[in-house]
């Protein structure tokens, strides 16, 4: 009653493709290196060279080559930069923990602590006559 299909199907399996596939570990390495590279850029903008060197070592380890470093200034307020760096370090910590990279996880946690302390110091240095958040 039905005629058999004579041509090959257009719905082939993706596994038959001729391109390289990445493992989950490789994808996490790429993601972690990206978060750390972004953290490095903010760290360099804040002028924290010793911390930047430690982050750069981890990026180089993950990528196999040293990262490009530049002082691309955004004229952002230091508090904004510290918040951004804290968030990036948090993302790096999550990825490092999921791939069981103890060295990167410890570094990320240390950077989170350092940026939290810097934010607290900036908040303490704010003028006392200013009411924050009051309208």
Structure description:
There is one protein chain. The protein is 60% helix and 0% strand. The protein is an all-alpha fold and 135 residues long. The longest helix has 23 residues. The relative contact order is 0.12. The model has no long low-confidence stretch (mean pLDDT 87).
Describe the secondary-structure layout:
Elements: H1 24-45, H2 49-63, H3 78-98, H4 102-124
Helix pairs in contact: 1-2, 1-3, 2-4, 3-4
What distinguishing features does this structure have?
135 residues; mainly alpha
Give the N-terminus to C-terminus distance in angstroms: 79 Å
In the predicted model, the low-confidence regions spanning at least 5 consecutive residues are none
SSE order in H/E notation? HHHH
Q: Which shape, going by the Cα principal axes?
A: elongated
Helix content: 55-70%
Radius of gyration: 23 Å
Measured by DSSP, the beta-strand proportion falls in under 5%
Number of helical segments with 4 or more residues: 4
Brief summary:
The protein is mostly helical. It contains four helices and no strands.
């Amino acid at each position: 009653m039905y005629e058999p299909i004579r041509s090959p199907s257009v719905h082939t399996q993706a596994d038959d493709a001729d391109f390289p596939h990445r493992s989950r570990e490789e994808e996490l390495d790429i993601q972690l290196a990206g978060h750390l590279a972004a953290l490095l850029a903010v760290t360099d903008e804040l002028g924290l060279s010793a911390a930047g060197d430690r982050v750069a070592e981890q990026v180089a380890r993950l990528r196999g080559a040293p990262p490009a470093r530049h002082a691309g200034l955004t004229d952002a307020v230091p508090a904004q930069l510290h918040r951004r760096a804290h968030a990036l370090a948090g993302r790096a910590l999550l990825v490092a923990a999921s791939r069981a990279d103890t060295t990167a996880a410890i570094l990320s946690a240390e950077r989170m602590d350092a940026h939290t302390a810097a934010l607290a110091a900036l908040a303490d240095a704010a003028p006392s006559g200013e009411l924050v958040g009051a309208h």
